[in-house]
Amino acid sequence: HCPKIPNLMTHNSHVGLEIALLVLVLLVFAKDDAQSNSFCWACERAGFRCNVARTPEAALESFQEKNHDLIIMDHRHSRYFDAEALCRYVYSTCVCVSVVTQRYVENSNMMSCYNELIQLHHGEIRAQIKLRACNAVFTALEQSQEAIEISSEDQIIQYVNPAYECIMGYQRGELLKENTEVPKSEQNKPDLLDNISSCLRRGKEWQGVYYAKKKNGDSVQQNVKMTPVVGQGGWCVRECVCSGVLMCRCCGCVSDIQQSSKHKDRRKGSLDVRSTTSRGSDGSSQRRHSSMARIHSMTIEAPITKVINIINAAQESSPMPVAEALDRVLEILRTTELYSPQLGTKEEDPHTNDLVGGLMTDGLRRLSGNEYILATKQLHHIPGHLTTPLSLNDIPPCIAQTMENEDSWDFDIFNLESATMKRPLTYLGLKIFSRFGVCEFLSCPEATLRSWLQIIEANYHSSNSYHNSTHAADVLHATAYFLCKERVKQSLDPIDEVAALIAATVHDVDHPGRTNSFLCNAGSELAILYNDTAVLESHHAALAFQITTRDDKCNIFKNMERNEYRTLRQAVIDMVLATEMTKHFEHVNKFVNSINKPLAALEENGSILTAPENRILVKRMLIKCADISNPCRPLELCIEWAGRISEEYFAQTDEEKQQGLPVVMPVFDRNTCSIPKSQISFIDYFITDMFDAWDAFADLPNLMQHLDNNFKYWKSLDEKKLHSLRPPPE
User: Is 508 part of any known ligand binding site?
Assistant: First the structure.
């Protein structure tokens, strides 16, 4: 194990609004091995400066000289040195804001070490560097030759620096007595202080002439500019920049000043600096201690914590009904499932509850001994007796004819399925990938692409009524259609387009025709492998890369440059995982708030569309809409897809009953289910809002018209109390 000890000693460095300090890492390893080499490589890649020590003595000497931010000690071989004793010694010698000790299980994988360093840097180290910078600021106040005074909003002195004592003639102890007000000069006009306070409360600057009163009674005139500055963690610091040389006066307060008076004592206690009394040798130690105490009173908060604190503050002065409503808001905010709607009772709408519950949960674990074994180790190979085209030019005319309008939204995938004997993905993939120049981008021969499409399609289950290669081809078609929309093209780079096409092709490979909930309840091998979390989506992404990279004949990534391949791979994985329905509302809400709303407000389009984080949201939304676009297809295609997904759910319910497993979606009983009701629920709950947002972004009036027509069709069947896909013949 390797304990990591960030040291937080103050460096003499410049501190700005953005803290950019070089991270220093000390590796304490008795000898070179794969683990130490991996950490050296990780430090170099992360841009950290790294020192290596072989003995405890060398480690201490190096640490005392350079004050490293992170120490990684080898705790595997106690015969070389006692790592815990070295830790204790470091604890005792460094004056730290706080020390974080963690243990890292031995893992010499370079990327694991790199990821560990990056997580530490973005977590503890960066936060502690900010605290260290705060300490530097307070130290600067102590050493400043300008007189500085900090008072609360009600003019009670909280702090003065040593220069203030010298210039104004007061001793710190006499000013920091209980409720000592700021000394005021009679030469200030009566309404001056009210004017200053009013400006600062409104967040406005105040500038003018101010008279300060010295201990001997003299008044000193200054030209002062006071600027309010909002700090982190609820602090409000008012910084006054003087144009004179005698004094810079600062007024400080915390956010709960405007709450009831019972908080005032606690507030003053958090700012108490009475221990700083002189500038002697003892005084410097005490001043350092007081600076550390003030740093401890400042928090580094997550945005959600800030929101909760603001609401808490607002409750104090709110009427009872408002305070109670805010209590309910706080209960919601303190949960982690902020984007997942809460379902009603079964009596309200069993179709919606069963459908949503089945798609958005990981199932109810049942220790019944019944286990559903999904054979994932035996990958399918391309059947030798099936003839396949050598290139686009060799596609049989009857198949080529069915693909003539493949760039149209109304393209009929079922005609292609029939013409290709349930192998539409290879043929459609060849045409669409050619249209987008995928082979040229990947530096990949068309023969390799053909072999890849064939092996991917061979690993889809043709026995599934819905999740088969026809569905994959349909999603690929929708993805290609969306990629041609103007705003989508403005948002994405060529590598994003290629990633989207690949993700659509592989997004359901080796799907067993059962939901995640079923696999978790059945204790399947995949559910165990992926810890009941995004089981199928994780499997699809992992298997796709296993299939692709195991054989050069179908490795479409073989000629890619390493970094470009890594970027492409991460994009494909992210898009495939985005098809998991438990995160549906999170993805849609982020898209609306980060992209739709700023665009609607006529903000700078370029920066919104091309920001890296927003490109990710666009790609997720694109594949999600392509994956469940069936209700937006022409009516006949919509009806066919509804029948296929219903049949797959019926088969799952049958198997759950046979195996004694929890029935995830009881409403999908083939003897009682109303398909129109299930489609109405799916459109209401998942489709409408998502496609409204996607239409607002990509401009898809034809899709929205189909959606409206299809919804009316299902409604009409339901109003007639029909449970079938179509009305009976007249």
Answer: yes
